[in-house]
Amino acid sequence: MNSRHTDSHVLNRRAFTKAALLAGAAVASDAAAALAESPKRIRTGVIGCGSVSHSYLPVLAQCPYVELVSLCDIRPERARNQAERFKVAHHYPHIEAMLAGEPFDFLVDLTDMQEHEHLNRQALVAGKHVWSEKPIANSLQAGQELLRLAAEKKLRLWGAPITVQSPQFAFMARTLAQGALGRVAAAHAHYGHEGPNWSPFFYEKGGGSMPDLMVYNLTTLTGLLGPVKHVAAMLSIVTPERDLTGKGRIKVTEEDNAMVLLDHGRGVISHVQSGFNYFNPHGHDGSGERQHTVTIVGSGGFLGLVGYDWAPQGVDLATQKQPQMKRHATDAEGYIWQQGAALAAECLVTGRELLVTPEQALHVLEIITAARKSQETGQRIALTSAFRWPMAR
Ligand SMILES: NC(=O)c1ccc[n+]([C@@H]2O[C@H](COP(=O)([O-])OP(=O)(O)OC[C@H]3O[C@@H](n4cnc5c(N)ncnc54)[C@H](O)[C@@H]3O)[C@@H](O)[C@H]2O)c1
Question: Can you give the pTM of this predicted structure?
Answer without folding.
Answer: 0.92
